[in-house]
Amino acid sequence: MPRHFTLLLVLSAMLFACTGIQAEDHGDKAIDKVKVAIFTGQNNHGWMMDTPVLEDILDDHKIFDTTVLQTPDRKDPDKAAKWQAFKPDFTKFDVIVLNYNGEMWPDHIKKGWVDYVAGGGKVYSFHAGNNPFKGWAEFEQMIGLLWRGNKDGKRVYFDDEGNKVVQDEGEGPGAGHGSQHAYVVDTKDNEHPVFKGLPDQWMHAKDELYHGQRGPALNMTVLLTAYAEPKTRGTGVHEPIVWTIPYGDGLIMTNVMGHWWKNQKDGPALACAGFQTIFTRSIEWLATGKVTIEKPDDFPTKDAVSVRELKPFEPLAYIHVPGVPGSDPMASCDCSPQTQPGFVPAWVQFADMLKPLPGESTAEQR
Fold first, then answer.
1. How far is it, in rounded angstroms, from Cα 122 to Cα 98?
2. Three-state DSSP class for 352?
3. pLDDT category, 366, cuts 50, 70, 90?
4. Domains defined for the chain, CATH in brackets
5. 229: exposed, middle or buried (C-beta count within 10 Å: 0-12, 13-18, 19+)?
6. C-alpha to C-alpha distance for 135 and 60, rounded to whole angstroms
7. Phi-psi category of 74—alpha, beta or left, where left has phi over 0 and alpha has psi -120 to 50?
């Protein structure tokens, strides 16, 4: 079970069976679980909602031991002191899932991060995890392609023949996305352990399709792409969706799927059986170099999405800040969008905690 909060419901055998997840068969043999940390706490997206969902997706498998590392809030009047006191030990974890898009980390955390990755640590950058830290050279090298303007690095895409194309700074679009829609993804390496045995093409559920990402783009291995349809305001080329980059002795995998906006009542991108499968297989592969999680029976096809029912979950709360409205821990609630279609998460009422800081743009979701 997650150690960050108590799940509201224990999934019954009937509900578990209907998800289509195939548990790994380890028999009675004790296994060393993969220790995973989800690093979050600041994001322009609904980190309070998608983090517990990511935990649930991992914890549906017996091989993961998941922890949440939650940063101080950006509006905390005492955040400077709390940042200095916040000293996560990344080395305790086999894989760090980066679900953070906020202010720059203090130097001691940045150093710990670089040392962890360079020393052999593994990172999984989730959706807007490629957005922050403009100007932090080590981070930008680790991620390779980031949410940046067209003058902030190279762009990588693929043409209709599958050829890799690299655009220089200033050429072509910068980072963006069209309207949310379901789209077909294409596997670039069907022998890679994460994608072996899966269809070469499959339909991902409604999500953003990032395009025009920019950065150093060094030593990238692109594993999954998607065609950005002009009719959905896309670029008309095949954009990278999942890629890996080595850094020192470590490895970073970036997956730009997974949009869940901060006032969004459901998360079809995370409910997608395809996303859940490659997410869990990726974490296992990063940690162990192999994959034992099998292709589920409900994996999507090229022509049809496959959306699972999300388990009820308790949203994360802002770390309590005395005297600041909306920072108290929230009451438990059933946040399953399928079982409560009209439900509005409790934290939506705390609008003052969700408004952008001066200088932040709200013109476009990322």
1. 11
2. helix
3. low
4. 13-20+31-354 (3.40.50.880)
5. middle
6. 38
7. alpha
